[in-house]
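Human: If only I could read backbone structure tokens as easily as an amino acid sequence. Take your time, and here it is.
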Amino acid sequence: MKTIQMTLNEKLLDSVDEATKKLKTTRSALIRESLKIYLEKLRVEELERKHREGYLKHPVKKGEFDVWEDEQVWC
């Protein structure tokens, strides 16, 4: 692991410290976990963007998925 230095405004730092107390963890652990979650969110957003672009380039054709309708259970 590497050590880094960060600059946070007071309000954000107060929120981080409040969360660390509530979660009984450290600033570093909270920030590491937050970054992992945020990076995963970015990854999912990128996949969704690519998915949308793919369907814009190659829209679903009429009847393309009709064969599966009898297999689905609608509640």
